[in-house]
UniProtKB/TrEMBL annotation:
Lineage: Bacteria, Bacillati, Actinomycetota, Actinomycetes, Kitasatosporales
Protein's name according to its UniProt entry: Uncharacterized protein
Superkingdom assignment: Bacteria
Length: 62
């Protein structure tokens, strides 16, 4: 799936841990459940950063 398809199919608004800004294409790429009381925490990356850094969203990992 390329970035344009990704932006259409899975939108969220979150902080991109790579370019340090909010993005409406950010997706969870790494979970950090350790110490989490209310919900899973983790690192999110926007579509551009996922492409540049070769990151795969958790939901797409097998």
């Amino acid at each position: 799936m390329d970035a344009s398809q990704d932006a259409v199919t899975a939108r969220s608004f979150a902080w991109c841990s790579w370019h340090k800004r909010f993005s409406d294409t950010a997706r969870l790429v790494q979970r950090d459940d350790q110490g989490s009381v209310f919900d899973a925490r983790g690192l999110f990356a926007c579509a551009d950063c996922r492409k540049i850094h070769g990151l795969t969203p958790v939901a797409d990992q097998q």
